[in-house]
Inverse folding.
């Protein structure tokens, strides 16, 4: 009987110990789910693997200033190329959807990188599965028209079809109806704003900085990154560098300026 009781007690202690111990991989997964960036050798390999000399600083969980006020129905949306914030963040945006490098998905996942994708249906449609994977990682999916026509000068019906049509396509294919709209080539007029409002758009998003073959270029203001800047990491036909490498170039400049990357949708 004593041997039986000892065996039962030993089994109970073993089960208790298994229940209380947490596998390191499981612990790392829980931290990632809770939004805690991992530290230590694994994290070191992550950022170094992508060509960064140090980890990307975490962006603030809550914006330091109130979110941009959203207009009412049918009110022309504001046009912005930067966000008025004191948070040390910039915002990375990507247009069209022509580049579908699976390694870019890995980069977004491993760095916990916030990105916003403005998709054109005629360009992105063959690869919506790629953008669904990015969306599952937290990437913002936003509107860049159906056919990438320059809106300014087009009649209302044509502009509305381009914007509302892409709203419908993105909802059908990716389950999202965007609030943000980027007009192709940064082209817009008063009709664009009216059509955008009628399609449910709250903000028209341009950019203050854009990556070129010569480095970052600026549309106005100081020729250096500032908090709140919206950065376009657009298509590049000159250097033909993969999107992930062009993104690293921007991230290095971001870190040099003592900034990090924020999620645009948290601020607009």
């Amino acid at each position: 009987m004593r041997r039986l009781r000892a065996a039962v007690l030993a089994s109970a202690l073993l089960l208790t110990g298994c229940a209380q111990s947490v596998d390191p991989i499981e612990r790392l997964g829980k931290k990632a789910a809770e939004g805690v960036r991992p530290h230590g050798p694994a994290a070191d390999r992550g950022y170094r693997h992508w060509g960064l000399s140090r980890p990307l600083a975490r962006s603030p969980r809550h914006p330091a200033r109130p979110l941009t006020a959203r207009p009412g129905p049918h009110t022309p949306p504001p046009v912005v190329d930067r966000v008025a914030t004191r948070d040390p963040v910039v915002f990375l945006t990507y247009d069209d959807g022509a580049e579908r490098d699976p390694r870019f998905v890995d980069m977004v996942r491993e760095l916990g990188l916030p990105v916003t994708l403005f998709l054109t249906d005629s360009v992105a449609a063959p690869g919506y599965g790629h953008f669904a994977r990015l969306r599952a990682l937290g990437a913002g999916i936003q509107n860049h028209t159906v056919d990438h026509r320059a809106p300014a000068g087009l009649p209302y019906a044509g502009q509305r079809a381009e914007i509302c049509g892409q709203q419908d396509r993105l909802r059908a294919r990716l389950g999202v109806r965007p609030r943000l709209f980027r007009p192709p080539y940064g082209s817009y007029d008063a009709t664009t704003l009216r059509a955008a409002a009628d399609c449910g758009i709250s903000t028209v998003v341009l950019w203050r900085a854009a990556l070129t073959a010569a480095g970052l270029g600026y549309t106005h203001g100081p020729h250096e990154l500032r908090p709140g800047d919206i950065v376009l990491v657009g298509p590049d036909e000159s250097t033909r560098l993969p999107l992930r490498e062009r993104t690293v170039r921007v991230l290095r400049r971001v870190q040099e300026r003592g900034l990090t990357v924020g999620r645009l949708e948290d601020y607009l």
